[in-house]
Amino acid sequence: MIYSVTAVFCRSVTIELLNDDIYRPSEAVDVYLNGVFVKKADTNVFSIYNLTPDTKYRLSINGIEETFVTKRESVFLDVRRFGACGDGEKNDTAAIQAAISSCPPDGTVYIPAGKYLSGPLFLKSEMSLFLDEGAEIKGLTDRNEYPVLPGMTPTTDEKCEYNLATWEGNPLDMFASLITATGCHDLDIIGEGTINGSASESDWWVDPKVRHIAWRPNLVFISHCSNVRMQGVTVTNSPSWTVHPYYSDHLQFLDLRISNPYDSPNTDGFDPESCNSVMLLGTVISVGDDCVAIKSGKLYMATEHFMRTDGIEIRNCLFENGHGSVTVGSEIAGGVNNVHVSQCIFKGTDRGVRIKSRRGRGEKSILDGLFFEKIIMDGVHMPLTVNMFYFCDPDGHSDYVQSMEPVPVDENTPVIGKIELSDIRCTGVRGCIICAYGLPEQKIRCISVKNMTVTFADAADREPEQVVMADNVPHMTGRGFVLHNVAEVRLKNVSVTGCDDSEPEMIGLESSELDNVIIE
Question: In terms of Cα–Cα distance, which of 61, 1, 4 is closest to 316?
């Protein structure tokens, strides 16, 4: 059994089995540490906890051995020694923040088992926040206990701007997140505990699109940071987007559990925005909006603070419920490049791969190099949707955004390049296998599909539904390939059962390659 020691922390380690299986190995594996049985692992990514810092360990999986050394730790600070109670009644914010502020480089702030009521906590560089099994940081329910982060502040010399907050792609004031890291480096958030935003017990989800004092906070906000890692923790009940890396690079999110109620508003699971070199590995997400939403801001940020999202790796994850499993957009004015998603299960989401843009995102909004392979889609209504008429923002229903007639290509016109899917298995499809609507003046450059099998849900169990959020696209059911304004289409080794169509619908096509495509 080939495997990789993916990440080593001061008191834990994350391991990935290197195989061709999707999310789970074909057989569970026995894991030993220093000759002692630790666990039987039944997922491709798993973690081992309760290790000792700065210690060499001998790992053995199905007889194959490898060694690793845990990180050095300078000091171990128990928040209870700072006055935290963890009784679910006392406000422990000040005590936990005191421990964080007092932590020296390479130190660990330890949250033992208990329920710690807290307002926003501000982390810093070169530290670990360790939530032990049974530990819960639980957000206070009164928004007045949350400081407001200004969206944009001019620098003293009035030559630049200092950005602290964001709301749906614009630099707007928002409440601080329960876990906030601003300008940090070499930061770890680890353990088997829980970060609970308490949104279901507060008023964060009441009139969610109305600004009350400031915009709703994320639950974990990682802003302008580098070399940040999260491992193991459960993140739940978020006021809005759950884990939101923003203008950051070299990030790892490993073996997490991210969950929000299926009907909670705008509670995306994982939203890297204007970030580079991001890994999401072995994570389970079930939320009320998109499980993963890859972004790069709206036009102002792309113009004044340009940072393209580049290098997103998502592997061995399980995405359940929600509007989309992996989404790109729609706040995407800075563009996205080099996204690789593999060995994942998409289960019960409305859409599998969901790409959404619109006129007005701008010429820097170039989406290219989007690769999806070795994916099981179980009960996903629409495996792939590409929508360049997404009706977001105040002008989303205007003629300019929604017109199906060509308009002049200018500095406001976005671009979608190549999208490639391979080795995809879909069951229980309802609306449409692939629905892609490009702009007539700026066609989607290429959609390539190879080795795909699709089975539709029974006709009696499905009805027409909104496949993409655009004014002039009809509701659909039982449709196969509806491709409008896609310059190049490649379909190879595609088998479809239970479809109402007999062949692809392709309008505005420039070239196509259909090889062994069977639609029944």
Answer: 4
How many angstroms separate the CA atoms of 479 and 457, rounded?
A: 12
pLDDT tens by residue, 194-225: 999 999 999 999 999 999 999 999 999 999 99
DSSP E strand boundaries for 55-126: 56-61, 64-69, 76-78, 87-91, 107-111, 114-118, 121-122
Whether 508 contacts 486, CB under 8 Å: yes
User: Would you call 250 a catalytic residue per the annotation?
Assistant: no
Give pLDDT tens digits for 223-279: 999 999 999 999 999 999 999 999 999 999 999 999 999 999 999 999 999 999 999
Annotation marks residue 289 as catalytic: yes
Contact 297, 331 (CB under 8 A): yes
In the set 92, 255, 271, 289, the catalytic residue is 289
Query: Beta partners for 8?
Result: 13
If DSSP states are collapsed to H, E and C, what string results for 377-426? EECCCEEEEEECCCCCCCCCCCHHHHCCCCCCCCCCCCEECEEEEEEEEE
User: Among 305, 323, 378, 471, which one carries the catalytic annotation?
Assistant: 323
Distances (CA, A) of 284 to 31, 91, 314, 512: 21, 30, 12, 37
Q: CA 344 → CA 215, 410, 514, distances in Å? A: 33, 38, 26
Strands 292-294 and 324-328, bridge-based pairing: parallel
Q: What is the pLDDT of residue 119?
A: 98
- Scanning the structure block, which residue is given the tokens 């505990």? 193
Scored b (16 or more CB within 10 A) or e, 303-342 reads: eebebbbbbbebbbbbbbbbbbbbbbbbbbbbbbbbbebb
